[in-house]
Amino acid sequence: MLLKFLIFIHIICATIWTGGHLILCLTILPKALAKNDFSIIENFETKYERIGLPALIILLLTGIYFTTVYTTNLLDLNFTDHYTRHILIKFLLLISTLLLALHARFVLIPKRALKPLSRHIILVTILSVLFVFVGFSARSGGLL
C-alpha cells in the first residue's frame, strides 16, 4: 500500500514539475521573448519555485526509493532488466536537468541572458516530458 501511495505522490509531483515547465515554455517564454523582458521569466519563476522545487525534491526522494524497490543492483548497469534500464535513463535525464539548472542559475540568470536562458527552458521542458514518458514506459510494461 505504501508503494502505491508513493507512486501516486510521484505522479502528482511529476505533474507539477512538467506542467509548470510546459506553462513556462509555451506561454510565459514567448511573451518574455516578444517583449525582450527578462522580468517576465523572473516573476513566473518566483511564484513557481514555491511549488516546483518541493515537487522536484519529492520526485528525487521517491525516485531513490523506487530504485531500491525495483532494482536488485543498479550498479550492474544491466540494460536487459526492464526497470534498471528505465531508472538509468531517468538518472541520465536528471543529470542533464541538473547541469542545465546549475548553468542557468549561476551563469545565465546573473547575466540576465534571456535568449540563452530560453534555450535552457526549452531543453528542461523537453527533459521533463521525457521523464514522464520514461516513467509511463516503466509502469506500462515498456515502450523503451
Automatic annotation (TrEMBL):
A GO cellular-component term linked to this record: membrane
Q: Is the keyword Amino-acid biosynthesis in the record?
A: no
Positions of the Copper resistance protein D domain: 46-134
InterPro entries, sorted = Cu-R_CopD_dom
Give the transmembrane ranges: 6-29, 50-67, 87-108, 120-138
Origin superkingdom: Bacteria
Specify whether Transmembrane is a keyword of the entry.
Answer: yes
Q: Which UniProt keywords apply?
A: Membrane, Transmembrane, Transmembrane helix
Listed name of the protein: CopD family protein
